[in-house]
Amino acid sequence: MTLRWAFNRSSWRPEGEEKGAEFQFLLSCISKEEAESVLRFKFFADKQRALASRLLQRKCAEECLRLRYEDVRIKRTKGRKPFVANPVDRPADRPNFNFNVSHEGDYVVLASDPVCVVGVDVAAPGQSRKNGVFSLEQVFRNFKSSFTAAEFSNIKCLGEEGAQEDAFRRSWSCKEAFTKARGDGIGFDLQRCEFFIQDASPERLPFTHVAEVHVDGKARHDWSFSLQPLGTHWVTIARGPPSDVVDAFGEFRRTLTRTEFSAQDWRREIHSPQPGFDIVALRDLLPSDRLDEYDQIVEVDPFA
């Protein structure tokens, strides 16, 4: 089972914010520890993103592994890759079930994969601007240690500011998705991975771009990268071989039950058609036995 979910939090304005009945109900759908981590954020927008992320993860585990919603246990690798820690057998058609989440700007996204290790990253507009203006020179100074000269040259040659910013966000999103799929996150030297991004063929829609990665100067054709625009945001899905997983504690790696592939089998897997993102509502992410309770709260909120 392959899931691609995106939640747009920009239109979600719960009455009373985190103190309101709706937000408090949603917190009750996750574990106490998860709820506490959500509330530690200073700004309400960050609390919204964090809560939506945890709801996405629980619903994904429920659907893909047939776990009870309230029983789902999420842990993270040393590099902060989330995974389902429940000791449950993986279905035969999803031996390496894993997922990844990302949130920035308006969107919170989740991607899961039954076989490949998967990473996802969403890049919002404005994150690379200073005083509302995109400056390639400023970006070069800030991200000099993360991009190669060729990558900056490919961005610079686009000329127009808006095109340069889009290209920068696509490149950054690829790097983030790659390291998140591997599991080492910020522990990976981003200059080691160089991305070559090009327009996708029409049959790949809604993905408009694809990318190839070179690691330490060597092309890695056993990885695939698909990029999709969501409004003004860019989302990248990275998919690669389980053998590339970096997991200091070994707990996530032990959930992967098929790690050996013939070259032919892997080519078939990595180039299989991929679905784009479906926009989901909060209600879609809740346990079915609590939907009536949620509907009543949303309809009659004491802060309304």
Automatic annotation (TrEMBL):
Residues 118-225 form the 4'-phosphopantetheinyl transferase domain. Residues 11-114 form the 4'-phosphopantetheinyl transferase N-terminal domain. It comes from the Eukaryota. Its EC number is 2.7.8.7. Keywords: Transferase. GO terms for cellular component: cytosol. One of its GO terms (biological process) is lysine biosynthetic process via aminoadipic acid. One of its GO terms (molecular function) is magnesium ion binding. This is holo-[acyl-carrier-protein] synthase. It comes from Chloropicon primus.
